[in-house]
Design brief:
heterodimer; A: alpha/beta; six-stranded mixed β-sheet; B: mainly alpha; MetI-like fold; 2 domains; 15 helices
Chain lengths: ~250, ~290
């Protein structure tokens, strides 16, 4: 490999900052997002909080490249990323129902992103195995590599989905209701787990939730959304102390 | 309600009385025997009425061999093509949102509602010697009607819905999340299809292909119209069976019918064998 020039993908630890510039999204005649703007500092753990239909998942999917905005721009590290394809975004995406590949073992699931790389940048087999093993240790499930998703509990599936997203060395981590399908006890545990992984990797992380307690407890910065608009952006304590609108007041006291 | 609890002793809500159960099972079994097994046995019995030798001999002549070969050729061409079209149609319908989706689904079902004879006539009208397209093709040495291409077209029209119909409900149930996950992990659309979509639908696909194959080999109505029934050239197995039967050559007719039946049974056995072999994997992947 060349050593003279630093590969753009090799910049590790330097988390990315994200800017959302007047993004709007129309689905037919309904507006899922009115023009919204938001700056996410590098390395932050951000919650998009709102009831269903508030546009939070749409915004997350636009960041990940799974949906394209009707108007507006997305900037990664100051560079226009609006036209980047989903593959080019390199966003680690954790889906609401985890979307694990049901016909593959846990090991194959986590290795998928590395195996999908073009031959030139694909790590050798042994290296892939080493990385998968490391990720399984990171999510504290070292012995489940040979199992199938259907043989795992909900909490285990969520952690495998997280490991699979991390395996591609993502530039950011996007999570859609990561704790939505879990019972209260597991949810608390995994909340801490996500915090730990965020702190360890330093990745800019955005997660969507409708649970205000979860958002307040876990995030550095909370973005409260309603009806396709951003109602308030701030630290959890500030939002609690000074809700900007009536909607925020009633929503966070719920 | 109080009467019921007094007389019944803890029977599950969905359970029937033994009498009802035996009556229903017996009715089902009798129906099966009468409608499925008896005709099957009759076919083989008639074929072997004059002994093995006569049956085998009737299949050995040039026309019979040509019919078997033609039917296998038609299946070999139309089934893979319909599998590809069916996958493409199901993929398009289930993974994308667009206007007129319901109309497209209806269109795919059209061959089920149109009589095969009508379908055959349409092909004759389209590609016959008297039509614009057909006339030009015949003049240039590519006859469609009364030749292999016409028979393949007719077969494909009739068997078109089988694969797509099997795949669409499965793919709707599975949703798009796994494909989206593969894309976010950097896989191309093509790679996503081969490594995620196809493995997830393989059993439905296999089933659709088997049904399609069975129907492709057995199709009569549409093929009867377009083939011209030229013995030794465009007569498929079902058509040969009909012609032999009309000529009172019952051993030959039923021997051919027995071969067609065996072909169908072989595909069924193949499916069962595959399912048994991959039973563990099936159980692991279907319990999601």
């Amino acid at each position: 490999m060349q050593t003279s020039l630093p590969q753009p993908t090799a910049i590790e630890g330097a988390a990315m900052h994200i800017e959302i510039d007047e993004i709007s999204k129309q689905f037919g005649v309904t507006a899922a997002l009115h023009p919204v703007s938001l700056a996410i500092p590098s390395g932050a753990l951000v919650a998009l909080l709102g009831p269903s239909g508030s546009g939070k998942t749409t915004l997350l999917r636009i960041l990940g490249g799974l949906e394209f905005p009707t108007a507006g721009r997305v900037l990664f590290d100051g560079q226009d990323a609006t036209g980047l394809t989903v593959q080019e975004r390199r966003a680690g995406f954790v889906f609401q129902s985890y979307a694990l590949f049901r016909h593959m073992t846990v090991f194959e699931n986590i290795a998928y992103g590395l195996n999908a790389r073009p031959r030139a940048t694909r790590p050798p087999k042994a290296e892939i195995a080493r990385r998968v093993t490391k990720l399984l240790e990171l999510i504290q499930l070292p012995d489940i590599g040979s199992r199938y998703p259907s043989q795992l509990s909900g909490g285990q599936r969520q952690r495998v989905a997280l490991a699979r997203a991390l395996a591609i060395e993502p530039r950011m981590l996007l999570l859609d209701e990561p704790f939505g399908a879990l019972d209260a006890k597991v949810r608390k545990e995994l909340r801490q787990g996500l915090r730990d992984i965020h702190d360890e990797t330093g990745l800019t992380t955005v997660f969507v939730t409708h649970d205000q307690e979860e958002a307040m407890e876990l995030a550095d910065m909370v973005v409260v959304m309603s009806m396709g608009r951003i109602e308030q952006i701030g630290k959890p304590a500030d939002i609690r102390a000074r809700p900007a609108t009536d909607f925020v007041r009633t929503f966070i006291s719920a | 309600m109080s009467d019921a609890t007094a007389t019944t002793r803890f029977r599950s809500a969905t359970e029937e009385t033994p009498l009802t159960r035996w009556l229903l099972v017996g009715l089902g079994a009798a129906g099966m025997a009468l409608l499925v097994f008896a005709p099957l046995i009759a076919v083989f019995a008639e074929a072997l009425a004059d002994g093995w030798l006569a049956a085998v001999e009737s299949l050995g002549n040039r026309d019979a061999r040509s019919a078997i070969q033609l039917t296998l050729t038609i299946a070999a061409i139309s089934v893979p093509l319909n599998a590809a079209f069916g996958i493409a149609a199901a993929w398009f319908i289930t993974k994308f949102d667009f206007r007129g989706k319901a109309f497209l689904i209806t269109l795919i079902d059209l061959p089920f509602s149109v009589s095969p004879v009508v379908a055959g006539l349409c092909i004759v009208l389209m590609f016959g010697t008297n039509s614009l397209v057909g006339g030009w093709l015949v003049a240039n040495g590519y006859p469609i009607v009364f030749a292999l291409p016409g028979i393949v077209l007719a077969t494909m029209f009739v068997t078109f819905p089988f694969v797509a119909r099997e795949l669409i409900p499965v793919m709707i149930e599975q949703g798009r999340a796994e494909e989206e996950a593969a894309l976010t992990l950097g896989a191309s659309g093509w790679r996503t299809f081969w490594t995620v979509t196809l493995p997830n639908i393989r059993w439905a696909l296999l089933y659709g292909v088997l049904l399609c194959n069975a129907r492709a080999m057995g199709e009569f109505g549409a093929v009867a119209v377009v083939s011209g029934k030229i013995r030794g050239q465009t007569a498929t197995m079902p058509i040969t069976i009909e012609m032999l039967y009309n000529e009172y050559l019952s051993v030959a007719a039923f021997s051919m019918a027995a071969v067609l039946t065996v072909l169908a049974l072989v595909t069924l056995l193949l499916k069962t064998a595959l399912e048994l072999r991959h039973a563990d994997q099936l159980a692991a992947t279907h319990r999601h």
